[in-house]
TrEMBL record:
GO terms for molecular function: ATP binding; protein kinase activity. This is Protein kinase domain-containing protein. InterPro entries: Kinase-like_dom_sf (IPR011009), Prot_kinase_dom (IPR000719), Ser_Thr_kinase (IPR053235). SMART domains: S_TKc. It comes from Acinetobacter pragensis. PROSITE patterns: PROTEIN_KINASE_DOM (PS50011). Residues 15-294 form the Protein kinase domain. GO terms for cellular component: cytoplasm.
Length: 294
């Protein structure tokens, strides 16, 4: 489950800073690396490098999330879970990071090497699992993608964790299989730790707006929103946190175009407003998909 890029490959790679301005403001540095392959004539490999600054003031959650993600990758690697991308944790002295990317002009782009945590997370490039237009796929292909996404979350739950930040961009297709990324907010299932609510309103289950803790059911709801947007071809929209709360708690419309209406009962069960009426675990989603496809 590990990548094996050596120091020479990392030092000669082409680094391009990709971080959004908001991410840079809380100390997150994300690079896209073009690494030359060993075999002549092969295209350079695309690899993502994720790093974090120390002492980011009011953004301590970013530091904590980054360090947690590193720890979880190391912890889970002993189980060789298939939901993880191959990864490599590298040190800052193995790389040739430049102080600033010449293509960016914002003052926040200035990289102070000494302010960075000494370890970085290296992950291979993967395409979004929900990138393809479902209108170009068969129902069997769509079912297969959904099953793989559910399997990934189920495997994570089997290790005792919620993803707790389920969104479309956190499912990647790599070597023909759906994998999960971004475990900064992952928490133990039934964790009794009191944490501030840190979630994306677009994917928040109704109970989260009422101060309840994240759960398997809130991850299921978030996946339901991912599938609803993918299959309907429309993104939900709201202009404020209050509007998102109103949308999820009262006026969410669950409907699909005719070619995908076979998936409507599944989405209705995943997106029930009342947590106790929603599907209780990922095995129920799989059973529903298999029954629909029988």
């Amino acid at each position: 489950m590990t990548l094996q890029w050596n120091e020479r490959a990392l030092k000669t790679a082409k680094y391009t800073l990709i971080s959004k301005t908001r991410s840079l403001s809380f100390g997150r540095y994300l690079y896209l690396l073009q690494i030359a392959c060993a075999k002549e004539g092969e295209e350079p490999a695309q690899v993502w490098l994720k790093g974090q600054c120390k002492n980011t003031g009011g953004f301590a959650h970013a530091e904590q999330g980054f360090l947690q993600e590193l720890s979880l990758y190391q912890q889970w690697s002993a189980h060789s879970p298939s939901f993880l991308l191959p990864y490599q944790i590298v040190s800052i002295d193995q790389m040739n990071l430049r102080p600033v990317n010449a293509s960016r002009t914002q003052p926040d782009d200035v990289l102070q090497i000494e302010q960075l945590y000494p370890q970085f997370l290296l992950l291979p490039h993967g395409q979004s699992a929900f990138f393809e237009n479902p209108n170009q796929l068969s129902c069997n292909d769509i079912t297969s993608i959904i099953l793989q996404a559910v399997n990934a979350l189920e495997q994570l739950a089997a290790l005792g964790y919620l993803h707790a930040d389920v969104k479309a961009e956190h499912f990647l297709s790599y070597e023909g299989q759906v994998r999960l990324i971004d475990f900064e907010q992952s928490i133990l299932i039934n964790s009794e730790m009191i944490r501030p609510m840190n979630a994306t309103p677009r994917y928040m289950a109704p109970e989260l707006f009422h101060g309840q803790a994240k759960s398997v059911q809130s991850d299921i709801y978030a996946l339901g929103i991912v599938l609803l947007e993918w299959l309907s071809g429309r993104r939900l929209s709201a202009n404020s946190y209050e509007e998102w709360a109103y949308l999820h708690c009262q006026r969410l419309i669950i409907d699909l175009p005719e070619p995908f209406r076979r998936f409507l009962p599944l989405l209705q069960s995943m997106l029930m407003k009342q947590k106790m009426q929603r599907m209780r675990d990922f095995s129920q989603i799989k059973a529903c998909l298999i029954a629909e496809n029988a």
